[in-house]
Amino acid sequence: MIMRSINIKSLLNILFVSIAVLTIFGYAYFRTQAYLSGPQITIEHPLNSVTVYEPLLVISGTTERASSLHLNGRKIFIDDNNVFKEDLLLYPGYNIITIEATDRFDKHVKEHIEVIYQET
Question: Which domain holds residue 71?
């Protein structure tokens, strides 16, 4: 009887320690997963492959986990809500716009938008 009670106690101790360790590792994985995946860019305006009739184009969107953001190689700024908005003067015809985000771990992501500016 005493032997069985010791086995149950040791089994419960192992179970509780295992649950605690799994909880700590699960929480650590959950918290670091976003940082390990790198930055993200969501471009809200303009849509890809759109034709515009004005030379001045407003590019806007959001970014996550980005420490710097570049539009065609030029640094642009992100507000406190991770929103960016920048004006860009288009050339007549076909334009490729590149937005690149970098996080604090030096991971990069690029998004390309193709826009056709048709003069009226």
Answer: 39-117
- At 72, the amino acid letter reads N
43 and 1 in a common domain:
no
Average pLDDT of the residues in 39-64? 93
pTM: 0.71
Beta strand pairing call for 68-71 and 50-52: unpaired
Work out how many domains the chain is built from and give that number: 2
Distance CA 79, CA 95 (A): 26
Strands 108-117 and 93-102 turn out to be antiparallel
3-state secondary structure at position 96:
strand
Q: In the predicted model, is pLDDT for residue 98 greater than 50?
A: yes
